[in-house]
Amino acid sequence: MARVVIVSARIGAGHDGAARELDRWFSGRGAHVVRADFLDLLPGRLGELLCGAYHQQLNTAPRSWDWLLAALGTPALAGAARRFAGLATPRLRELLGQDTDVVVSTYPLATHAVARLRRSNELTAPLVVYLTDPSVHRLCVSPDATLTVAPNETAARQAKALGAGRTLVSRPLVAPAFRPATGITERLRLRLAFGLPHDRPLALVVAGSWGVGQIEQTADDLLATGLVEPVVVCGRNEALAEKLRKTGHRHVFGWVDRMPELIRACDVVVQNAGGLTTSEALATGLPVLTYRCLPGHGRANAAVLHNDGIVPWVHSPSELTEALEWLLRRPVKAAG
């Protein structure tokens, strides 16, 4: 039985979501899968501090993420980030042992920690880099990877330009529960279960597991179109959920365990980052819009999805109205 180690990170839900589905894929083919969180491999409280700093930055100074990502794309700071990743190698070395057959990374810093062990010949098992975003940053790629798996042709080209070796394009893995509704009866039943209105189109607003971004403004803009009723998922951001309820939004959720069903209950998804939830919504057969997207990776992802004709990037309230009118008439088919 092959031993597969998947290294992810609990920074948002996208990296862990990809790791979960990779676990399902490998396990279904008879492999013994071990999953690890890169943040737990760092010494002391460094992982907790790194996660907290990123979360705080997106909440309080989101525009600085544009600057930081650009800076991390320079050779000097990219090198510093790779050296930082090396702090995880002692625990990573212990985790991998001598009997690992394949290592899969869904998180950039984990990629560079594993790559360091390959360069020093302490690891002979192949390294597979699984890219979780439609766009590719320099830190997402390592020339020491045996294989880089990209979610689209644009990401594959970007990865190769940044030094990736063998690259494969494969549509993003999503849980089987993300499927199109069987018909109007299922959709109405789900709306009743979630306490949603049955007599108007619903726009599902998602902002990742942390509920970051201009979510209140997005919900207000959607309501102002007069075309849809916003249904807002705030993830673990309970403060945001409470604020939205106090300002009069009627359909506000915190963390949702039944996300496939909630998506199927709605008519369109409005997102701001272009990662896992976008893939899940497309697999469910719903049209998706990018609106008021996050700086940094959010904008980079939005550009790729828009230019590839997958998800329109809407830049203003007037464009939002036009896009909704068009999408509600022409829903997309399930991806794949």
Automatic annotation (TrEMBL):
Name this protein carries in UniProt: UDP-N-acetylglucosamine:LPS N-acetylglucosamine transferase
Q: Which Gene3D superfamilies match?
A: Glycogen Phosphorylase B (3.40.50.2000)
Question: Where does the record place the Glycosyl transferase family domain?
Answer: 231-331
Classification via Pfam families: Glycos_transf_1 (PF00534), MGDG_synth (PF06925)
Gene source species: Amycolatopsis echigonensis
Q: Which residues form the Diacylglycerol glucosyltransferase N-terminal domain?
A: 15-164
What does the entry list under GO cellular component? membrane
Keywords (A to Z) from UniProt = Glycosyltransferase, Transferase
Instruction: Please list the GO biological process terms of this entry.
Output: glycolipid biosynthetic process
Q: Which GO terms describe its molecular function?
A: hexosyltransferase activity
Q: Where are the transmembrane segments?
A: none
